[in-house]
Write a structure and sequence with these properties.
- The protein is about 40% helix and about 20% strand.
- With about 230 residues, it is an alpha+beta fold.
- A six-stranded mixed sheet has the order 1-5-6-4-3-2, with helices on both faces.
- It is elongated and about 60 Å long.
- The mean pLDDT is about 95.
Length: about 230
């Protein structure tokens, strides 16, 4: 998909009437446009970095395409822009319909079935070699047809085979980034609902399962102790 360069006036026309959904000290990060589409803006954080040649917007688009090829629900209808007047690149897209798992926690709709569904979904990602650094419950969406999908997918790697036990465990750190997410995934410190579903969905032989279970359990134990202190 080609990147379109737009000037200041074209950008202002695009964002006219938009709602700012996320911003930081450097400016707007996510806009909801009048059309209902979202626009995610990316800045290069360092003067010399790989983003100079391969912008974050391009990574976002490439990751969406890879996920779609793996039949994993994600955002759609993408357009990519370079906006020199504000030193940004951007992606405009149709958001993924549904509620984030984080929203379901707030709505008290995150139960054992959802825990096991998320565990199976995460195992599918790992089995397919998808390492999503931002894989916390705010970036996983339950769609109207009861599937799970991903948003905010700029920071992601794809491997040719199932992730190693150590890499899966490392990804669990991102899953357990927030205390309220840990409490929801492991109610009363209970690991079995999540861990048993996750390990079964990884499709391991007995030896592999023992290895993965040991490595991942050590990682989870650290977060469970911290969450319940």
């Amino acid at each position: 998909m080609p990147m379109q360069t737009i000037d200041k006036d074209q950008y202002q026309a695009l964002r006219q009437g938009a709602t700012v959904l996320a911003a930081d000290a450097y400016g707007d990060k996510v806009l909801e446009l009048r059309s209902g589409q979202l626009m995610k803006l990316f800045r290069r954080k360092r003067l010399f970095s790989s983003a100079l040649f391969y912008p974050y917007s391009r990574r976002f688009v490439a990751n969406v395409q890879r996920l779609s090829g793996l039949n994993i629900p994600t955002v759609s209808e993408l357009s990519e822009y370079r906006i020199p007047s504000i030193s940004r690149s951007a992606v405009k897209y149709k958001p993924l319909s549904g509620d984030s798992l984080e929203a379901l926690i707030r709505q008290r709709r995150f139960d054992r079935q959802r825990i096991e569904q998320f565990a199976i979904f995460l195992a599918k990602l790992h089995r397919l070699g998808v390492y999503f650094r931002s894989v916390h419950l705010g970036n996983v969406v339950a769609t109207p047809d009861n599937r799970l999908g991903l948003i905010d997918v700029a920071d992601m790697k794809f491997y040719r085979r199932r992730l190693s036990a150590s890499r899966c465990a490392r990804n669990m750190r991102h899953v357990c980034r927030y205390r309220e997410h840990v409490a929801a995934l492991f109610p009363a410190g209970r690991r079995g609902w999540f861990l048993d579903s996750y390990l079964q969905a990884l499709q391991l032989n007995d030896r592999q399962r023992r290895r993965y279970e040991a490595v991942i359990s050590r990682q989870l134990d650290q977060h469970l102790v911290a969450a319940h202190q």
